[in-house]
Amino acid sequence: MAAWKTIRITKPCKLRIKNGNLVIEDETMRVKLSLSDIDSIIFEGDRFTLSAKVLAALSKHKVAALFCDEYYMPTAILHPYHQSSLATETLKAQLSLPDDLCDRFWQEIIRVKILNQSAVLSYFAKEDQKLEKYAKQIRPGDPYRTEAKSARIYWKKLFNDLKREANSLDVRNQALNYAYAILRSLITRDLSAAGFIPALGLWHDNRYNAFNLSDDLMEPFRPLVDIAIYLLLQNYKDDYLAPALKRDIVTIFDKEYIIFEGGLSTMRTTSVRYIQRFKAAILNRKIEFINFPTIDFEALSECF
Description:
The chain has helices at about 50-60, 85-95, 100-125, 130-135, 145-160, 170-195, 210-215, 220-235, 245-250, 265-285, 295-304; strands at about 5-10, 15-20, 20-25, 30-35, 40-45, 50, 65-70, 75-80, 260, 265, 295. It has about 300 residues and is α/β, with parallel strands linked by helices. The protein folds into 2 domains: about 5-80, CATH 3.100.10.20; about 85-304, Four Helix Bundle (Hemerythrin (Met), subunit A) (Up-down Bundle). A 4-stranded mixed sheet has the order 1-5-7-8. A 4-stranded mixed sheet has the order 4-3-2-6. The protein has a 3-stranded antiparallel sheet with strand order 10-9-11. The protein is globular, with a radius of gyration of 19 Å.
């Protein structure tokens, strides 16, 4: 059975391994969890204690471990070290990927992202024809920064007065950052499991960023996260990221409103399949091998 649980660590506690299980305990409680059931763990803040043995066990069982600061921004991600049987072949293909193919991948990634953004705005009757125009105009490597132009229109239409800032106390920003951090950890885990080095990106190339490729490949998913956050926030009146909202954000990755390869899926499952399709595209040097996620709006209405 595939791992399915997402664990949030928000209070002071100690984590340890006993008889192959993860034990989480504090002064008042003790919880034992099978590592094979855990898909991801989110550590919020620094009020917990764990050992190298715990980290090794999480990595061995391919658990995506995400560490966040007080603004719910990711500070670290634990990902397994090359557990793919084709790790060497994949790594060689990644390292030798020609620049022109990287640019074409980026073109397609951004094209789909902009189309998904346009679909989100249309769902809320806020559509802007410029987005579809930009999607058609995008060029390999996006030399004219079409993505940035689209983003300015998209955010102004979706949230109007929202400014996308990393350390903003705006609950909308915090909710988006929290969800993106989870998505990033899932993509990173799946990339590593497929034999990729997440630091080597197609377009993102920050020498201090260990997850450039993750940031590249999560782009088409962002609008899928945005629409879920928008809908969740309709039911919350708090001006901060409350525990109840964080719990709900975690659940969006297991809701079936994503279309991938013609079928209905969750973001968690789609991430695995998406990375496998990307791997096939890299190994075969054919961009046509990769498929991208979109939104099933009828299913979405049943999920939120």
